[in-house]
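Protein modeling request. Please complete all fields; requests missing the sequence field cannot be processed.
Requester role: graduate student
Desired output: 3D structure, token encoding
Chains: 1
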Amino acid sequence: MRARIVIGANFGDEGKGLMTDHLCAQGAGVVVRFNGGAQAGHTVVTPDGDRHIFRHFGSGTLLEIPTFLSQFFVCNPILFFTERDQLIAMGYHPVVFAHPECLITTFVDMLINQFKETKRGKTRHGSCGIGFHETIIRSKIDELKITMGDLWNGGDHLESQLAEICDKYARFRIGEKFDEPKACEVFLDCCKHFAECVHPAGIGQCKDPVFEGAQGLLLDQNNKEFHPHLTHSNTGMENVEVLCAQAGITEKEIYYVSRSYLTRHGAGPLPGEDVTLSYEDETNHPTTFQGAIRFAPLDGGLRTRCGLDARGNSYKLVITHVDQCPAKLDSEITSHGPTRNDVEE
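Delivered output (345 residues):
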């Protein structure tokens, strides 16, 4: 069995959704989300004009390819149903499987995240405000850790855990508690339905997988050059290697994706940033927490970081948005042009 792997080469927004959809159109059994959470924004457009920004679901969903959320994915039941409703309204019927060790984001994690990021003002980290990092931090406390397996087992302690998170834990993180009984009630009901909609599975059950990464190599949690403006996640091959070993997969096709220029949507350094550059982008609108998307010429370290992350495996470099960039690309870069869609992340 082979794995096809899609990884962002830069700061995200490279075209990972486009490439995942392209590979799924060639045939796939499942799309595996191997890092991150619902802070992704992977856009797919069908030949018939259906357009969707994938956050919690795999970018093969418009081809009716199921999604597997690995143990490295952080689930957000609230945002899951928002996106699921959108897909159903479009006429699609998404099927989602998950590993029992997936962490669960609560509405409190989201509120704490937004409170802390707002408080930082001009020193913001670049968070999307959906509680991804806060979920991981809270889950280091065993008594407050909530997993997909807990929800499938009935969530017997979920109500008391949520009360503790709203009170003592929130006061520990931001100095004040959340007295939100109605929000707690809604969230508990949401978790119940989430456990009914998402089915248990392991990576060994995933046949002919396409691994879809979130964010990009320059945002990897171990890339100290850009600390603290990083994601709390392994964005490259590290998680993929673990999953492939668990599934007995030895054949890997790796695709690193980059636009023909650099982007950064969120706070933090952007090497070579050029405020005079402007490119059309239908997905990355200015947001409260991330601000406006920024641009720079493609950097010279692209091939080096892809090669280091590939860990000796061969790989292909995929360049998107070539029609938007008048500058000449490095002659060593091989352009790959998926044709199913014309709008990327």
